Amino acid sequence: xxxxxxxxxxxxxxxxxxxxxxxxxxxxxxxxxxxxxxxxxxxxxxxxxxxxxxxxxxxxxxxxxxxxxxxxxxxxxxxxxxxxxxxxxxxxxxxxxxxxxxxxxxxxxxxxxxxxxxxxxxxxxxxxxxxxxxxxxxxxxxxxxxxxxxxxxxxxxxxxxxxxxxxxxxxxxxxxxxxxxxxxxxxxxxxxxxxxxxxxxxxxxxxxxxxxxxxxxxxxxxxxxxxxxxxxxxxxxxxxxxxxxxxxxxxxxxxxxxxxx
DNA sequence: ATGGTTGCGCTGCAA
Length: 261
Hints:
Belongs to the DNA repair enzymes AP/ExoA family. The record marks 222 as: Important for catalytic activity. The record marks 151 as: Transition state stabilizer. By secondary structure, the chain is of the alpha+beta class. Helix content is 25%, strand content 26%. The strands form 3 sheets. A 6-stranded mixed β-sheet has the order 3-4-2-1-14-13. Strand 6 (91-96) and strand 7 form a beta hairpin. It is globular and about 45 Å long.
């Protein structure tokens, strides 16, 4: 069995202490981070190693984006893809000894206006997700797990108000349509919703709320998917909402899943 | 209808 977590950390250097706390208290076998906002050589790997996470694959750039996969178990191969040719560090993949492939994705947020004619970033987001669809269609993934900050909340109960967010980037019908097409192309199962099928579920709360916890205007932007051949081995999904209330928090909470493999 | 916060890195941009 192994446990995996995904967390948009919003600067891995500023929040090195929070990552350490999560690794100590929750001890997942694998932790996938997004928005590291750091060149790879400045990621605090020494701390990871001291806590038993001796293996890492990462892609980085100064100030923006950045993804990393930390592991207690050996990583036998690594890969990456520059989706939508943005030149951003938004994807990294790792193959584990048991053959399971882990994809860590940071899909573009997409700006404020949900119209690619006036907002180039929105078009880039749709193109990014379309390329995910095409890649999975051409090369069907097997024994694979894909996690990350997808920046899309697909279900009505993935947002605090479906009606109020229909025109807000992250929950527009066209984004949801694109994400579901990518999911379908790879026969991906939404593991979090397989385990927690009912009810409101969020992984992100804006910094701008006066009291994020009381207002609870969240969205489920962070996801764990698995291919059908291993999705039935998944159980025990949860979102560590508490971490959103830690000192100087990320605006995202970590999402967990365990697999009997 | 609007403004609200944070991180990076140095002026505003991205989220």
